[in-house]
Amino acid sequence: MKVKSYRADFPILMRDVKPGLPLVYLDSAATSQKPEVVITAMDNYYRSMNANIHRGVHTLAEEATAAYESARAKISRFIDAGSTREVIFTRNTTESINLVAYSWGRKFLKDGDVVILTEMEHHANLVPWQILASEKNIKLEFIPVSDDGLLDLAAYKDLLKLEPKLVSFTHMSNVLGTINPAKEIIDLAHLAGALTLVDAAQSVPHFPVSVKDLDADFLAFSAHKMCGPTAIGVLYGKENLLTAMPPFMGGGDMIRKVALRSFSPNELPYKFEAGTPAIAEVIGFGAAVDYLSGIGMENVQAVEEELITYAMEQVRQFPQISLLGPDAGSKGGVLSMVMDIAHPHDVAQILDQHGIAVRAGHHCAMPLHTRFQVPASTRASFYLYNTPEEVDKLMAGLAHVIKLFS
Amino acid sequence: MDDLYREIIIERYKDPQFKKELDPHDISFEDENPLCGDQLRVDLRVDETGMITDAGFSGHGCAISQASADLLMESIIGKNIEEVKKMTKQDILDLLGIELGPVRLKCALLSLKVVKAGVYGLGEASDALVED
Ligand SMILES: Cc1ncc(COP(=O)(O)O)c(C=O)c1O
Question: For chain A, how far is it from start to end, CA to CA, in angstroms?
């Protein structure tokens, strides 16, 4: 494993949680840590080229605009988009999905139309559709999740008979770790005449994703889960779809011409980027994509596969712990645990005393926890900078929890 | 290392003394901690002088929230509801004997919040009930 060299790229991983207690960061599904190159890129922007973009003609504005747009080009190549016009900057996955619901949904969905979601969605891919459904008479249908954490594709095929307009689903579950067969889901949707939206918040950061191979119509992800800064994300959309959609927010940058009583929208992608954007964050995002491309997403995936396989083997020593989700092999680096004897908050708190950062709660997927009849779970999630030794520390921490509570 | 998990907290969590529903009861109130989905119901019996004669809690939650509920039930039995209305965050921290950060404080204070919303006869519990 080449992991040691990746670790050294992340300054925060050098810190102790308390003196003498090194940080074991196992909460990357919530947000990843940032490598030095990303921090430096943002710092450089503020130190040497800070200016508003797209409007100024002075040198700083030219440099900042070039840096901003070159980041868009890198991200576009990273997901194999057809052109930079298909890469819209938003704040995050949540905003990207809301953009589609607000702009495409309000224009193209009509009374009685069906939208298919799944039972394993993050609230970000549930609530925007619920809001839309409360305004228009739209029917939401859900692909069920099996006991071993997989989507029931037979049930999906039945649901497609309802002639849905959209199938919106998560590429990888942030709780179960399940990697859904996105290509198959999209092909089936297209055969049934539906468009597709992929919540790629947990996939683009962790394995190679090509919007072209998937033939996804829309795809959403966040920089902060892939070594980039917070508050910057992407909505990918096929150009013909984005062209037909009305603007999401109005203001500066998104217009071509404005009169007192009318405006004409700017071309793509600017039509959907109203107001001064998160310039430093976009530049940081570009640096994150450079960093990950330099390593190779296959290599990122390989590290995580090794870690989750090892962690799932090791956790079996504790009969008190049951796991949510499928077996290693069909899942990403997410280990969600349920313990009858201890509440997830207590588990996470005791692990914190060992320097281990995990997440406790429903991870913004309350309906999924309801499906598995547990109020909450404890989630350890891995990224390229984690090591088998950290898995061992997690197991030692879990042993301590069990000792305390049995 | 386990300062937060003092013996009394673990003991009360594993073997609570007042985890029960009271039927009939004079006051009952239920609330959730939206951050973690924990849920707590408190039932009280109150005599004509306003004294609490029995108290019980039910629901699910972490060791901190369950232990503080158990200790709180014990401490309010025999108290007048007017006294209970005056209880604060500090009373709970004294019962638990620990310091808590902002996230876990919410767990610890859930039971007091529920009790106070109940004795005040409110429709909804609010954090303002347990702020000092
Ligand atoms: C599957 C999934 N979808 C959506 C989101 C929302 O991402 P963000 O909070 O960056 O909008 C997350 C992150 O928590 C996620 O894991």
Answer: 37
